[in-house]
Amino acid sequence: MNISKNTVFILLAFFSIYVIWGSTYLLNKIAVSELPPFFLASNRFITAGILIFIIVKLMGKSLAITKRQLVNTTIAGFLFLTIGNGVVVWALKYVDSGFAALEISAQPLVVLILMRVFQGKKIKMMSMLGVILGIIGIFLLVSQNQIVSQEGSIAGMIMIFFCMISWASGSLFVGKADLPRNYFVNTGYQMIIGGLMMLIASFFLGETWSLPHVWSEKVQWSMLLLVVFGSVVAFTSFNFLLKKVSPDKVATSTYVNPIIAMLLGWYFLNEQITTQSIVAAVILLTGVYFINTKRKLVLFARFRK
Q1: Among 47, 54, 130, 199, which one is most buried in terms of CB atoms within 10 A?
Q2: Residue 298 pLDDT greater than 80, yes or no
Q3: What is the predicted pLDDT for the residue at 90?
């Protein structure tokens, strides 16, 4: 069986956004325990953007982009990183990493709804069932007394919800926008611009800035992994996939991300995994599956006869 080079890249890119991004919740949770959220995120993405630009120059590629591409990368950087990531890191000060990942797993629902509203894409019966299951799963997740009663947890949930809308909007925007054709160049500009906006936000919020040598060893390692794998590798893969497959398919990374995040949070941070969270995860991820599967349920087939 012959597998094209493009197919291999797509499979590797999906592995990257599935597995690597699943671990970033743990890494961000560790780092934000010591560092202010926007300062943390800005350092991560500015550093990663500079590394990507170095890689681009070593590849002999040009960093030149048009004015339109600069505007579009600025919009994408704001939606994906300044809001879509920076605010999530902020929310992790108030909610567990596994909980945050599970709530964000509802993102395909948001993508589907936005595609219906702004692109007129018809929601099929399978997808409609997925939306209903997703809503039930989210309700079960956020209605747990032991979670809601934690200080700042409701604020964290609301912040994550707005991040989902921002990230979904960015996914739709990038799928149609005029952006640099080279995926490294595209990612590098988004990261540096998004990182600079987060640094400005950090300054106006009065966050305390510090140098890496005063950070604890666990935070230093977390930042290194976030920069190299969570940013350079995974985010470049994400931008690559948005040009190769549909946005709702890219959003299927939420099948795997919450499972990995919950297990890592439980193992390394002793985060609690409740029975209700497990039930919510099963219902929610089943809904996400129905949104993206092309197979028909036997039940629906019978109703059609």
Answers
A1: 130
A2: no
A3: 95
Average pLDDT, rounded, for the chain? 87
Residue 128 CA: distances (Å) to CA of 104, 124, 156: 19, 6, 28
* Residue that the structure tokens 């993508």 belong to: 111
- Non-local CB neighbours of 196 within 8 Å, separated by 6+ positions: 42, 46
Is 112 exposed, middle or buried (CB count within 10 Å of its CB: 0-12, 13-18, 19+)?
Answer: buried
Local structure of residue 79 (DSSP, 8 states): I
DSSP count for the chain of H helices, then E strands: 17, 0
pTM of the model as a whole: 0.84
CA atoms within 13 A on the CB side of 110: 22
Mind listing the pLDDT tens digit for each residue in 37-52?
999 999 999 999 999 9
Structure tokens at 283: 């219902």
pLDDT in tens, 78-115: 999 999 999 999 999 999 999 998 888 888 788 888 88
User: CA-CA distance, 103 to 252, in Å (whole number)?
Assistant: 14
Length, in residues, of the chain? 305
User: Do residues 225 and 81 touch, judged by C-beta distance below 8 A?
Assistant: no
Distance of alpha carbon 86 from its chain centroid, rounded?
11
Q: Are 104 and 254 in contact (CB under 8 A)?
A: yes
Alpha helices in 59-152 (DSSP H): 67-77, 86-91, 97-104, 107-119, 125-142, 145-148
Q: Where are the domains of the chain?
A: 5-121+144-273
Q: Report the C-alpha gap between 111 and 263 in whole angstroms.
A: 26
Query: Can you tell me which residue has the tokens 């029975």?
Result: 275
Token pair listed for 100 = 């945050």
